[in-house]
Amino acid sequence: MKKENKILVKLNDIFLMNKVIEKIYIKTYEKVSEMNIKALLKEKSLERCNFSEILQNEIKKLGEDVEESIMSKRRYHFYMRSFSNLLQLDDNSDLLNAVYKIELLCIEKYNELLQEINLSLSLCRLLVKQRDHIQYGLRLIKKELDFVG
């Protein structure tokens, strides 16, 4: 596989993951009654919406249309199945722990892509910025966990 294709596949994967997480956070937001958790989920869903839009533009710059790929649709459904258990959690502590784990997985995905050779400097900066923003958000989730648990 060419380096550019490998980068596109991983970038598309991160894009899809962000889209799914955005939807899951919105659905979970609608279900939760605790105001602090609602605020956190709303903030995180808006963050993921923003990340997705930016990543979609980057994918288009690299010459791929994110909506047409069959592999992309399969990956999207895989993430939906993987993260939809978040909607089933009733305990606030369990819910926050699940969000924390999802955020850790995202950081891992970003780091995998950042290790690719031939990543453009502008894309590298963008990914680092988004990854660091997610890492900062982990601290907020941890504080909320300490408060709830």
Model description:
The chain has 149 residues and is an all-alpha fold. It is 81% helix and 0% strand. The longest helix is centred in the N-terminal third of the chain and has 29 residues, at 3-31.
The stretches of 5 or more residues where confidence is low (pLDDT under 50) are none
| Strand content bin | under 5%
Q: Please state the overall shape, judged from the principal axes of the Cα atoms.
A: globular
Q: What sequence of helices (H) and strands (E) makes up the elements? A: HHHHH
- Report Rg: 16 Å
Terminal CA distance reads 46 Å
Structure class: mainly alpha
Query: What is the averaged pLDDT score?
Result: 87
Largest sheet, strands/sense/barrel: none
Count of extended strands: 0
Our count of helices gives 5
How much helix, percentage-wise, in residues? over 70%
Name some characteristics of this structure.
149 residues, 5 helices, 81% helix, globular
How do you describe this structure in short?
By secondary structure, the chain is mainly α. It has five helices and no strands.
